[in-house]
Design a protein that fits this description.
Layout lengths: L9 E5 L1 H12 L6 E5 L5 H4 L6 H9 L13 H9 L13 E6 L7 H13 L4 E6 L9 H18 L2
Parallel strand pairs: 1-2, 2-3, 3-4
């Protein structure tokens, strides 16, 4: 029994949901026809040095034990594990067209995280659209930006979900 039409399965996630979305499109590249992410965590190794919550990177990577080893100066070994636990480590498998919605003033998941991933996907030939909201922070919650964000998500999904 089919529960969903495979030609219409798309993903949407923001922040940690974007982390999960970008993990899924890399680890199950044949399953999804489109994805949209808002301020996604794509590379913990990059994020740990630029976020306002660097301890979260340790927690996400190592679980609660990670907080015991938290430092503002992660070791080369930590950075390697952060990278390995990040969606960017699966980038070479991604085929899913992906829309990136990024708040330029985001301190939680700085815009560089999404841009790095999106540019690498584009270089690999994956269809990518990037929209940066210059005045928005992590939530992309200014009314006009929120509206434009979800309007673009709808258009993106309509394009790919046939």
């Amino acid at each position: 029994m089919k529960l969903a039409d495979p030609s219409k399965i798309a993903l949407l996630g923001g922040s940690h949901g974007g982390f999960l979305t970008t993990h899924l499109i890399g680890q199950a590249p044949e399953k999804f026809v489109a994805a949209a992410v808002r301020n996604p965590v794509c590379n913990l190794a990059l994020m740990v040095g630029t976020t306002d919550i660097p301890d979260w990177c340790f927690f996400e990577t190592y679980g609660s034990e990670g907080l015991l080893s938290f430092t503002e100066a992660p070791s080369k070994e930590h950075l390697g594990v952060f990278y390995d636990k990040s969606p960017i480590s699966h980038l070479h498998k991604v085929k899913t067209p992906t829309l990136f919605l990024l708040g330029a003033q985001d301190l939680r998941v700085p815009v560089s995280n999404g841009l790095q991933y999106a540019r690498a996907l584009r270089e690999r030939g994956v269809e990518v659209k990037i929209i940066v909201f210059p005045e928005d922070v992590h939530g992309i919650d200014r009314p006009q930006s929120d509206f434009e964000s979800f309007l673009n998500i709808g258009v993106w999904f309509k394009k790919y979900c046939k």
